[in-house]
Every structure is written in C-alpha cells, then in structure tokens.
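ugh ok fine here u go
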Amino acid sequence: MRWSQAFIPTLREDPADAEAASHRLLVRGGFIRQLMAGSYSLLPLGMRVATKVSNIIRREIDAIGGQEFLLPVVHPGEVWKKSGRWDDVEGILVKFKDRKDTDLLLAITHEEVFALLAAEMNSYRDLPQLWYHLQTKFRDEPRPKAGLLRVREFTMKDSYSFDLDGAGLDVQFERHRTAYTRIFEAFGLKSIPVEASSGAMGGTESVEFMVRSDAGEDLIAVCGSCDYAANVERATSPVAPVQDVDGPDAPERFATPGVRTIAALTEMGDFAAADRQLKTLVYVVGDDLTLVVLRGDHQLQEQKLADGMGGVEIRPAQEDEIPDALGAHPGSLGAVGVDVTVIADPAIRGRRNMVTGANEDDWHLRGVDVDRDLSVDKWLEVRSVVEGDPCPSCRGTLSIERSIEVGHIFKLGTGYAKALGATVLDEQGLERTITMGSYGIGVGRAVAAVVETHHDDAGITWPVSVAPYEVVLTVLRPTDEAPARAGNALYVALRAAGIDVLLDDRDERPGVKFADAELIGIPWRVTIGPRGLDEGIVELAERATGAKEDIALDDAAERLTTLVTAARA
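structure:
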C-alpha cells in the first residue's frame, strides 16, 4: 500500500478521554474511531490487525478439528427463554420486537443457537464435533471504558464442543487450553491460565487466560513459588487458626452507641479485635433475606457467594428491607437467634468468645460461640484472598495482580443441550443428552492487550505476527527521481516476496514520517534518501529495539525477506 493513497488519520495529541495506553495509541495511530460509548469503527490499519488476529485463531482452532460457521446476530427470544437466559442476563441483553410483535434480541453469545443446530445430530457416531465462528456480539455494558478493552459491540471467536459424555468434554477442553496457549503466544502475549468463575454461563469448570497489565480490570492471585493462579473470584487460601479464650456460658449484651463499623468496634478494646468479630452482611438470595457471616477482618467475595448458591440471583439487601426482618440497621446486625437463612464462611467455624451485632441498634453481643449460638444453614467459603496470603497448593505467598482477560473456556455440561433438545442415541440405542463446552476469545480485546504490552513512549511496537504491515519504506524527498525510483523498486520486490509493505511516498518532512512510522508501530523501517543512495545504501531500523544499521540497497529485499520470514515462524 502507498501511504499517499491510504487512509491513516494519525493524530499528534492524545484523545482527551483516553486513559489506557491501547485506547490512546489505537486512536492516535488511526486504527479505530469511536462512534458512541463502547462502539468503535475499525479503520484500515485496525482491520488489518484484527484480520491477522482472526486468522491466527482460525489456524489454531482448525488444527484441533474446528469447523467454521457464521450464525445470526439477531435471535428469536423463544430460544433464550428455553435456556432460561432471557431473564437471567437482563442487565446486558438488548431486547426488541419486530413488526409481528415477536420477541428478538441481539446476541451476547451463541450457546443457544449452536445447541439448536446440534439437535440435528441423531447418533453417537456423529460425535465429537467442534464448531466455531467469528461474529459480532452486543452487550449493553453499563460502563464501557478503555477503548477496546470494555465495549458494547465486539467480534468474538466462540467455539462449541459436543460430546457424548464428560470424558469427551475433558479431551476437548484440554485441546482448547493448549490451542489458546498457542494462540496467545502467536499474538506475542504471555498468558496465564487461571481458575475462574463460570458466572452466568454456568457449567462445572472454567479457565480464564489472563495477561498482566495495569490497564486490566480483573484481579488474579498468583503464587510466586508454584503454578497456582486463580481469579480472585475463585482463589482460595488457608486461614491460620486463631487461639480463642473461653467465654461466658451465653452471649452478653453491651452498649455500643454510635458504633457502626468493624474499625469503630475494634477501638473499644482488645476484646473486639477485628479477627474476633463476626461480620454480618445481608443479601437477598432468590427471594429470601439471607445473612452472610464471616470474620471481621475478612472481605466478602460476592462472586463466590453467587457461585455457591447455584446460579440463584443474589443482591445486597436494601437498607429499608433490613430493620423489619432483623430489628436493627446495618452496623448492629448479627446471626444469633435469627429466623432467617444463615451462610457462614468456614474461617469462623469453631470460633469462641466472639463479638457480633445484637440486632438492636447501638448494642452488640460478646462471648459468642459460633457452634453453640449460630444456626448455620450452609458453610460456604466466601472470603476474598488478599496480598500475602499463603498459597493453597504449596504454602508459598500469593500476590494479587491486575490483568486483562483475553480468553475464557467453559465446561457447560448438558444444560443448554437439554433445554434445546440436543440428544443422540448411544450404542445401546438409549437417548443421551449431548455434553457441551464453550470457548471464547474477543478479537478487539486481544488487539488492545497486545498494544498494552507492546508499546513505548513513541507509539506501538507490534509483534510481526499481528502488525498491520511488516515493513515501512520511508522515502525522503519522494519528488526526487532517485529516491522515488529506489523506493518503488524495493516496494515491488518486497510485495513479490509476500511481505506486507507500506510505502511512505508522502511529500512530508522526514520528522513527520519517522514519528508516524513509530506511532503505528511497523516492525521494520527502511529509510531511503538521496544522501544514502549516493553510496548505494539505505538505513534499516528495528522498531522494537531501536537498532539501526546501514545496508546495501541491492541486498535490502533479500535481507528484509529473511528477517520477516524468520520472525513469522
């Protein structure tokens, strides 16, 4: 491509609303433009990168047996009602009606429709299958931000495996785990597979692929001594035992005027240290008011609570819902003698002589024995791990790191297949529900993650595998015959060798050309100017390292072809 004919609208200044490096540089480099909040147009450079990302994904999913489909973006509501997700994902699902008053929606993912297609299979001999597509998704994200990292409309590769049983699903799940590792390596990303929550997707097991980045919104717990890694929504850590002293035979009330927090109660004396308090949180689980009790110095990880309740909708209780049920306002609440469901974190099991709210404003109880005084309906590990906690695998030390989720794989099981009637006959002629897996990679987020981990003060430093062009030829004084002729000849030779090359033939100052080339991040730049041509040389610069050298013009095509070919491997 000749730069003089290309649409590459680079900007000298950062966009005012851009905080993440990828947002800033993709806009400045002319890769993307915002249409509205959470919706971006891919310009030609952005489209070239996204195409290369998509082709790497296709290559690796095809290699494990994938077959490419293309399913619609608009779905009939009836299909999602069958799966139960018509109401379950109300917050982000965009619903509308057509002229016949039929319920429709914009797809946020495609489990239902792929399961519907799988219902056409009849025999176990049709299995296993692995189907995928790269298609637009729309999620009504309430807080789109950071450019392509959190959007409303995006392209995702979602693949779906179909097997007769869980053993077959395990095989396909592990194949995807390996394929994803190869995909992210090909992007130039160092991904970390972590244990994760399945969330609204459901299923028995899921793994996220994370890339460390300060721009990420996910937190992961990583052990510095072993391979343990988990999203904080799933991470666990052993809790050191606390030695309790004997307390009274029954809880004792004591006045706590104006005390509404763990910290304020701690200030009242040693008997109320945070690790000797019971923190009581009020949630609505399904339709039931529920108390969640954990140690005073521990924080609730809400996703653990949601996962532990089997997908039942949960939410924090509103303040006006609490007094009628418990007799007090938040800050004076406890689970002693209550007539509501109580969920407790195992870290408080067996604790004695504890302090908790008395369910009367401005009063607390001391001398609480958890086993004696609390009627626990469900023990559930809901504590959030923190920096410095011991690793559950090797007792090393956990660190909490910010990261970007670039991929997620799920073991769905039979839920979607059962809802949509996807069954086959087994060897004995018995009807069996197909077992499914689901596996996703967001193309735009992958592009942004690459930029977050491959940039410097001057711009993007694309890995060769996904760079919009592999070589840029910067012609100085292109109106002069010699540089123009040499640049064009090298351009033709590189294109003939299969190199993605951009010829900067613009009549611009050298500083503008160099700045633009660094901003858009082409891996190699060849500078062709009158002074060097007098000696038969051109300058070769590597974008990632800044290394420069003079090479013979006659050797340039072969040298660049060798460099690019080796970097592609």
